[in-house]
What does this fold into?
Amino acid sequence: MGYEGNDRRRHPRFPFVKTVELKIDGSWQECTAMDIAFGGIFVSTEHPPPTGTPVVIRFAIDGKEQPLQLKGMVVRCALEHGAGIGFGDLDEEDRSVLSELLRMLEQTEG
It folds into this structure.
């Protein structure tokens, strides 16, 4: 379930290559998500924000009218490569939508 390699993540992650929007210091920028898990997402960007930066990430989900918008924090920065973003406290609706997305990705992977 998910590809985990040698990392120590609590949640399985799944490939999720998709254009997303990242809000940093009040400004939105487009970047590319590479993978996603219940605990966070990795985005590829030429100018990743430093570790500890609060962000908002927004992306469309097939079949949903509104994009999913989640608060998070940069937990890992790979200069000139991207940033690992940990999701903050998710409300019940966001948890449900994210869980549904991950189930779909898991089924697609298998």
